[in-house]
Amino acid sequence: MQILQRRMAVVALALGATLLGCGDRAQETARDEAVVRDVHSYARPEEARVRHISLNLLADFNAKQLTGTARLAIERAPGADSIILDTRDLTIRRVTDAAGNVLEFNVGRSDAILGAPLVVQLPAEGDTLIIEYETSPSAAAVQWLDPAQTSGGKLPFLFTQGQAILTRTWVPTQDSPGIRQTWDATIDVPKDMVAVMSAELLSEKPEPGVDSTRASYRFRMAQPIPPYLIALAVGDLAFKPIGENTGVWAEPDVVDAAANEFAEVDDMIAAAEKLYGPYRWGRYDILVLPPSFPFGGMENPRLTFATPTVLAGDRSLVSLVAHELAHSWSGNLVTNATWDDFWLNEGFTTYIETRLMEELRGKDYADMLRELGRQSLGETMTDLGGNSPDTRLHLDLVGRDPDDGMNDIAYEKGSAFLQTVESVVGREKLDAFLRDYFDRNAFKPMTSERFVAEINQHLFGTDEAMAARVRVNDWIDQPGLPDNLPPLRSAAFQRVDKQVEAFLAGTVPSKEETANWSSHEWLHFLRALRDTVNSTQMKSLDDAFGFTRSGNSEVLFEWLRTAIRNRYEPALPALERFLTSQGRRKFIAPLYSDLAQSEWGRAFAERVYAKARPTYHSVTANTVDDILRR
Q: Which terminus has fewer CB within 10 Å in the chain: N or C?
């Protein structure tokens, strides 16, 4: 134990220095895999790193625990005698080598954000660790739902959400996006339930489980992925194919509607391959989760996890699928090495999303998406302050939860940067660069520093004037928005603006004038209203267009924000239903934030949140906790 205690002391000192801002910023030690020091992981991959994980887990819905083993294949440097893994709220029962010999281990002091380091003595021979463990019933990545929280209401449900650093709450591994790992899993579940994962399903039918009441499902991910993309869901699930290699998983009463909503997915894949190269993950399926899922979508390889709030019935919100599909190139194929570089995932993906929707539905449609994104970016800039260091693309998240960087700066400023590059070098040249970039760096992590080197070498080359016009460093390392951002004006929104002006002058838009409006045009209309709209105007809009009863979650969300700002009482029951019927953080957080601005709103928010919080995933609940503490 003395070796491990000395190791733990070194880890504690190193971590303390890092959290105090005294540690080095991420430094590359090997270009081929861009090994960097990740301040959100205890791992020291330059000494010993995880290459492969084999999970053998039983899902216990009564105890709300996953129990079993993680078998880790290790690669170590000469002289390395231990490995450091990331854990949080895991109970480690035993660690052995492949022969069953017990290995010494120690779980260090837990940090509120990072969890606790698990230091394991490496075997003298062999590079395999077998960790027996169980998760906590309150594991932050795992949400256990009662039947009443599902659509069908018959069986319970569980799903995991690992991004950013929550995989360590259900898998003991090196939980850093820069440490890619292959994996396989065997999941034992109740016999009347189905398990799905972000990997290849190895048999069409389940195998026998540990007893006659259970069944076992086996999965394999042959490509190395960052651990935040390991994902599991178990529930009453049915499958419906869309194309030869695409389909939808969902609860039985949802699966037909979901398959219809996502019918364009094969066209999206074809458009993406034409622009950015082959899809390298085999199948592309979509899992529609119960409403408590905290994100719009999560780009887990082979199986996007999606919110049911995207099921509008008219395919009006499927740009979300285009976004998650785009991650198959930007994020899953080439991944931010640390969470300081999150924009390399989301900025690229947001840009590609609009390109795919332009291929499918035309430039006018894509321009609406781009302008809505600019509006959201402007709001985020205002909230953060234009000179805030958090408005830089390359962040410094030392001592902070990486969730702090998951906002529209990464998504929309990142996309705006690529729009700027396109405006300078031309679309054809940028597309060629991006396609080569994904090929050159496939299955590798990427840092902001490396990307700057990439774009200088492979796009600008010796053209210093071109590089000077783009001003890469101003975009990546400086706060605010550079003034070379190209102007953007949607022709469709110009027509909407005329209706806004007429409405504010006293004329409600007619149903004939708005008959062909998409949800994006309605979003622009609602966002353009003044903060103060009198009750008569609110009622006239509601009577004409039924916003309070809207089945389109995006439109209803914007309407409810308008209702809060203007205390439109008839919409408050719908607001309460919306806050208690789904947990998508994109919707939940702004609504609580708006409510918290007034005395009446805060009282309303606290009353509703007391009821809703137990139904939210930890990602959403933690965000709302912070909002209501201010």
A: C
Q: What is the pLDDT of residue 435?
A: 98
- Among the residues of 479-552, which ranges form H helices? 491-504, 519-528, 535-545
SS3 state of residue 437? helix
**Hey, what amino acid is at 73?**
A
* DSSP structure class, residue 459: I
CATH code: domain 492-629 is 1.25.40.320
Packed helices 319-326 and 343-361: angle between N→C axes, nearest 10 degrees? 130
Per-residue pLDDT at 2: 38
| Residues 71, 73, 79, 84, CA torsion sign | negative
List residues bridging with 184 in a β-sheet: 54, 220
What's the one-letter identity of residue 350?
Answer: T
The model carries a pTM of: 0.92
> Taking CA 162 as the corner, what is the angle to CA 303 and CA 272, rounded to the nearest 5 degrees?
35
Does the domain formed by 334-477 have CATH 3.30.70.20? Answer: no
CB atoms within 10 A of CB 365: 17
pLDDT confidence bin for 630, thresholds 50/70/90: confident
- Residues 384/385/391/392 CA torsion (nearest 10 deg): -150
Question: Which among 176, 161, 172 has a CA at the least distance from the CA of 298?
Answer: 161
Q: Token pair of 516, please?
A: 């062909």
Could you state, in order of their start, the residue ranges of all structural domains in the chain?
A: 2-236, 334-477, 492-629
- On whether the CB atoms of residues 227 and 201 are closer than 8 A, the answer is no
What is the b/e burial string over 93-116, where b = at least 16 CB atoms within 10 angstroms of the residue's CB? eebbbeeeeebebbbbeeeeebbb
d(CA 579, CA 613): 10
Which residues make beta-bridge pairs with 72?
53, 129
Q: Give helix 343-361 / helix 448-455 axis angle, nearest 10°.
A: 50
Please give the average per-residue pLDDT across 484-501, as a whole number.
94
Q: Which of the residues are catalytic?
A: 324, 411
Q: Rounded to an integer, what distance in angstroms lies between the CA atom of residue 181 and that of residue 169? A: 17
Given pLDDT bands bounded at 50, 70 and 90, which one contains residue 33? low
Q: How far apart are CA 163 and CA 345, in angstroms?
A: 12
Structure tokens at 238: 């049915």
Query: What is the CATH topology of the domain spanning 2-236?
Result: Immunoglobulin-like (2.60.40)
Using one digit for the tens of pLDDT, what is the confidence trace for 261-270? 999 999 999 9
CB 338 within 8 A of CB 178: yes
In whole angstroms, what is the distance from residue 246 CA to residue 240 CA?
Answer: 9
| CA pair distance 603, 609, nearest whole angstrom | 10
What are the residues whose beta carbons fall under 8 Å from the beta carbon of 50, sequence distance 6 or more? 72, 73, 74, 83, 85, 173, 174, 179, 181
Residue with tokens 């592309």: 284
DSSP 262-303: TTTHHHHHHHHHHHH----SS-EEEEEPPTT-SSSEE--TTE
